[in-house]
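Support case: user asked for a sample of complex input and structure output to validate their parser. Sending the pair below.
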Amino acid sequence: MTEAAISQPNFFQVKKGLFSWIFTLDHKRIGLLYLYSIGTFFLVAAGLGVLMRLELLNPGRDLIDPQTYNQVFTLHGVIMIFLFIIPSIPAVFGNFALPLLLGTDDVAFPRLNLFSWWLYILGAFFALSTLVFGDGPADTGWTFYAPYSVRTGTNVTMSVLAAFILGFSSILTGLNFIVTIHRLRTPGMGFNQMPLFAWSLYATSWIQLLATPVIGITLLMIVAERFFGIGLFDPSIGGDPILYQHLFWIYSHPAVYIMALPAMGIVSEVIPTFAQRTIFGYKAIAYSSMAIAFVGYFVWGHHMFTSGMSGPAAWIFSILTFFVAIPTAVKVFNWVATLYKGSINIEVPLLFALAFIFNFMIGGLTGLVLGALAADVHVHDTYFVVGHFHYVMFGGAGFAFFGALHYWFPKIWGKMYNKKVANISFILLFVGFNVTYFPMLILGIMGMPRRYYDYLPEFTNLNQVSTVGSWVLILGLIIMIINLVVSRRKGEKASSNPWNGITLDWQTTSPPPLHNFDKMPEIPEGGPYNYPDAHQVQKQK
Amino acid sequence: MEHAFVLPNSGHNWDAKSSKMGMWLFLFTELLLFGGLFLVYMVYRALNPDAFLIASFELNVYMGTVNTLVLLTSSMTIAMAITALQKGNVKLAITLSWLTILAAIAFLVIKYFEWGSKFEHGLFPGMDHYDSLPLGERLYFYLYFFMTGLHALHVIVGGIFIGVVIYFMRTGHVNKDKISLLENSGLYWHLVDLIWIYLFPLFYLIH
């Protein structure tokens, strides 16, 4: 099929200049605004992570003092969680791709969408301002546990207000996506015909909408307690610190599903495309997203097993934690079944999707260890936890983000990235990641506590392995970013459908025109991933 | 540059149902926001039942009742405004909307006097009388100020929202066929009213 002469300018060309970007109403540009801002903060937080690993290269002081170390890991956590992972896939790829996947030309509330981005920037500004004022960034850990968060002289208030503003941004994005998915699907595309990334965004948006306000008000209570010293949470004046923990984790546990579900949605898009086969068990994957969102509201207590809860409360939270793992396992089986007898096309997006499955399996299984009461007592607040959550959040959601970046790269910029360099960066990332974080699982079982500036001599070797791993990881990250940045300008021109995908996003030009489609998109018959028989495609090649 | 092809399901077609759905979703978030405070209230009242009762005697039940009636009436006037506009009576809709704003102002004035009398008795966190109270009573007053304060903020926002809608009714931007903004402002107002309906018995009518 020859590429017809472009009848319209693409969405980059319609208007130029900074103001046309920061006042844009185009969901594609807003997605990119998020990409650039989120990417910047990710690098800042990654730098903080490298600094932490450098400090942990040897026992005792290497580079920074204990107080600074506490501030570094707090800021690392706050930026990574609130400025990177929670917004990342929904704000970047949800914004860019959801309307395309649904066959529409924008989200339901474009101006609200822009406002969400401005709120994001405002929140980021608040978070980073803690670096310059007074006693510096908070040193409480990203969890801001009372009573320390109420009493410490560091900039808790600014950090917490930053999180509040960012929460608002998240809520409005969720609201926008829910209405978009309900109201703007192309004619003929029912809920059970929409791509699975849309389903995952739907489930995620409900969590964003319903869970975030609870942490919003909790954070306001922390600010009020710092100003008025009431005694809601500070036990020395009659408050209850466990109440804070409950309020905090009632949001923060569902928040991890905000991070995980869109990532799983990406995997559900990438695998059918690179197996050239319809997804195995579409409904199971779709409904499992909703199941994870739902059950995820009831497990928050598993972060508090050692805070003194009753036996019955503990085992109820534990059993529910085991339940929430089941829908995830369903997805993994279905993804693998999709690959079986598919016409596999090994490309970097698929590599990231496979890495997701590998990393998320480790992360998920270690999560079950933490969910088991007796085991948790041993590993709670150790490096086992740190390893666990980096496996799911970084090895899982982070890698899915990188995969999505490569998957939609040609669609966004109309160019192809350098595949050889991309493969190299993937290998460095995958190896570096595992060398950095697997030792942490062992260190945790051996007893090394988390958030500690120093450690016992017997933990030295594994810490050094981990730090070296972090250097490989960073190298992979840098190479990946350079590859993508250079390929944006100098890459080979990409067609509208370089992966032979069948979802609606591939039915328009690369880059798309401003209003997404030049003609009515055609939904595949029988399902969103209904590829013609894989063997036929192979013969055609 | 003009583009010839427009999707039937375009996101740029303003849509009443989407707009209403969006407002309802936003209301859920507001409920959850206040929900966190109600949860904290429940916990500390369960732990300090006597203190909460004693502290509640400081509040003026009459002023609270008047405020409740004021807000209930204002919910009625905004609902009537919507019906009026649905029937094409713009003037009546505008008048009723102004009455709603008047009720909001009345609510805030009464609140001003209520809070003022608390300050006079030194009952705000940080003041002498407050600091001398037992913990349970201090928690009560802290939650009282926090929750009624946050609520008052929402009354102000709701009032401004209705004010903006009045302006649009006058310019014709909001009319019988494009009534969503008025309806959504009414929904928001009903939420503000509803939250007060819960605050009132919890603070004023403890037994």
